[in-house]
Fold this protein.
Amino acid sequence: MSGDGRSRGGADAGVSRRRRVRCGSSWPQRVRRLFAAGLLGPVALAAATDSGRPRPNVLLIVIDDLGYGDLGCYGSTRHRAPHLDRLAAGGMRFTDFHTNGAVCSPTRAALMTGQYQQRSGIEAAIGFTLEEGVPLAQTMLAEMLAPPGYRSGVFGKWHLGHVTRFGPNDQGFHESVCSNNSPDYHSHISRDGNHDWWHNQQPHREPGYLTDLVTRHTRLEELGMRDRTLIFVTSDNGAYSWVGSNRPLRGQKAEMFEGGHRVPAIANWPGRIPAGTVSDATLMTMDLAPTVLALTGITAPQTLRFDGADLSGVWLRSERLPERTLFWRDDDERAVRRGSWKLIKTAQQTQLFDLQRDLGEEHDVAPTHPAKVRELEQALAAWERDVGPGARRSTGQAQPAGGTR
């Protein structure tokens, strides 16, 4: 699955039908364990074993700008994505999953670190520059998975800093074939006029349509390990309204209304995640790193404290998560979610919505619930003291994780 959402056999079909794994020419022809993440895609492969139950393979697919209403399993009648619909039917579909940011780079930083992206200094989409990126001092998921033998790769859109200075191979990934941002799919020329297709952080001249190249590099072929492979599919933010659908939500990409950050999410793991289930748990992209570690039996470094939660109980046993407060922030907007209540603040106004009664955020109830507004404003102020003042992006300084939830 590529960043434009087109399937070439699908993740499910790729794992279950063929005999070998191809992930770039330097990768092992046979592996025993896989972690794969698609950011238009990261992917990682592993070959280690345990004395106990074997660690699972993991495939994460992050589809660029996929809106809440863009898949058939979320009600779309316009787009056909049968492989994703099949994954949802055979696993768990989430109705209240949120990206950490309403644009791409912040969400991707949270995915890779398990922390609010503000701790990496990433609060907006990274521009066409060599100076912005997730600090190399930050610990990424690929680095956490390496000690027991996982091999990691990223294929597709990186967008966490220019690959020559903040690249995936310097952040624990063993193999990368990726772009910095979103180049033209035919010429691979970026909007700044430069070639933007890289192999292991070196310029890579490879003819072909970008979607096909990503699929070629990440094609999964059968090793008889589908039953041990967890697949998770989601988006990095909502869709622009003129490109995709966020129905029935208000708002679009780059906005703090639900349409900017509530997105499709599917977890599939045969025999472990109950088939045909739907979860309304309120989840966030930063939860994926601690969840992957929990499911792979890996302990996070003692120096690392996640902001995200371990979702393994939700996925495997449909457990309820303890209530927590979640936060969003960009240059000029903030949002807070606690239970069904959601606060949105800008310099011009403060709005309060009860999502249980008003999912479309049509009725601002701030004037009639001043106590709830004060409660959420106080929580927001405490969180901002924890993660630090607003910063558009990082040039190399990471913030330690605190305790605000």
